[in-house]
C-alpha cells in the first residue's frame, strides 16, 4: 500500500510561487506602501533630483567661469573668455537637463507643472545654487569670480530687460520642445543647452547671464556680498517667464500645431493625409 504522504515517483516538487510584486516593492492596497504615499514620494524624488541637477549644472558652470576669469580678468574684455563661459553654461545645462526643471516658474505659469510641485522645487534650487557656489569657492584657488554683475556701462533698467529677454528665449525652447511633446522631444536637452548658450553669448558680458535667481543668489551668499540691484536677477527672469508662458498659452489656444499639419508624420502618405484634412 502506497504511503499517501509520499510523492509518487516521477513527479517533481511543486514550484513555490514567487511574489514579484512584493519583491518590487509594489504599493499595498489603498496606495500606502508603509513608508510614504505615492504623492509624497513623487515630491521627494523630484526635490532630490532638482537639488542634484542644480548642483551639478552650476558646479561645472561656476568652475569654468572661475577659470576663465582667472586666466583673463573681467576688467579686460575678451571674446574668448565670454565664449568659454557661454559654452560652459550651455553644455553643462544640456548634460543635466534630463533630471531637473530649472525654469520652474515658467512651467508653472504655462501649466506644465503643478503649483505645489513648483513651490517645493524652489527650495532645492536655491540650496543647490548655494552648495555649488560653496564647493567651487572651496576647491578653486583665489577669490570667487563667478558672481553676476552689471558691466560695460549697463544701467539697472537695461540689465532688467536683458535678463527678461534672455529668460524668455530659454523658456520658449523648454515649453515648445520639452513641455509640449512631439517627435523632437527626445532632443530637448540639446536644444535647451543651445538656447542657454545663445542667451549667455548675448548677455554674459552685460549682466553675467543669470536667467535664474539660483545662479545669482548662491554666489552672492557665499561671497556675502549683494549688489544693490540684485533684485533684477529675480524680477527679470520672472518677467521673461511670464512672457514665454503667455505666448505659449496664446499659441495653444490658437492650435498652433495646425499651422504646419503633418510635421510629426512618419511617412509622406501620412503627411499628405494630415495636410488634406
Helices, strands, pairings?
Elements: H1 20-23, H2 38-71, H3 79-96, H4 104-110, H5 115-139, H6 156-179, H7 188-203, H8 213-223, H9 232-253, H10 268-276
Short description:
With 277 residues, the protein is mainly α.
Structural description of this entry:
This protein has 277 residues and is an all-alpha fold. Helix content is 61%, strand content 0%. The chain has helices spanning 20-23, 38-71, 79-96, 104-110, 115-139, 156-179, 188-203, 213-223, 232-253, 268-276. Helix 2 runs antiparallel to helix 3. The longest helix is centred in the N-terminal third of the chain and has 34 residues, at 38-71. The N and C termini lie far apart (81 Å).
Amino acid at each position: 500500500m502506497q504511503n499517501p504522504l509520499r510523492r509518487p515517483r516521477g513527479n517533481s516538487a511543486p514550484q513555490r510561487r514567487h511574489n514579484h510584486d512584493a519583491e518590487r516593492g509594489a504599493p499595498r492596497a489603498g496606495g500606502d506602501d508603509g513608508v510614504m504615499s505615492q504623492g509624497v514620494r513623487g515630491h521627494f524624488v523630484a526635490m532630490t533630483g532638482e537639488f542634484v541637477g542644480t548642483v551639478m549644472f552650476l558646479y561645472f558652470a561656476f568652475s569654468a567661469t572661475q577659470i576663465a576669469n582667472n586666466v583673463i580678468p573681467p576688467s579686460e574684455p575678451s571674446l574668448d573668455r565670454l565664449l568659454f563661459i557661454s559654452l560652459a553654461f550651455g553644455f553643462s545645462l544640456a548634460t543635466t537637463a534630463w533630471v531637473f526643471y530649472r525654469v520652474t516658474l515658467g512651467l508653472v505659469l504655462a501649466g506644465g507643472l503643478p503649483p505645489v510641485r513648483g513651490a517645493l522645487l524652489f527650495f532645492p534650487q536655491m540650496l543647490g545654487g548655494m552648495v555649488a557656489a560653496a564647493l567651487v569657492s572651496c576647491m578653486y584657488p583665489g577669490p570667487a569670480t563667478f558672481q553676476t554683475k552689471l558691466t560695460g556701462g549697463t544701467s539697472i533698467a537695461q540689465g532688467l530687460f536683458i535678463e527678461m529677454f534672455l529668460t524668455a528665449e530659454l523658456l520658449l525652447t523648454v515649453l515648445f520642445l520639452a513641455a509640449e511633446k512631439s517627435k523632437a522631444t527626445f532632443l530637448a536637452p540639446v536644444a535647451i543647452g543651445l538656447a542657454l548658450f545663445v542667451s549667455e553669448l548675448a548677455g554674459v558680458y552685460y549682466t553675467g547671464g543669470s536667467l535664474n535667481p539660483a545662479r545669482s543668489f548662491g554666489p552672492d551668499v557665499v561671497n556675502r556680498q549683494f549688489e544693490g540691484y540684485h533684485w533684477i536677477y529675480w524680477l527679470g527672469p520672472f518677467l521673461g517667464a511670464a512672457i514665454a508662458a503667455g505666448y505659449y498659452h496664446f499659441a495653444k489656444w490658437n492650435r498652433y500645431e495646425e499651422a504646419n499639419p503633418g510635421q510629426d508624420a512618419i511617412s509622406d502618405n501620412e503627411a499628405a493625409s494630415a495636410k488634406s484634412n
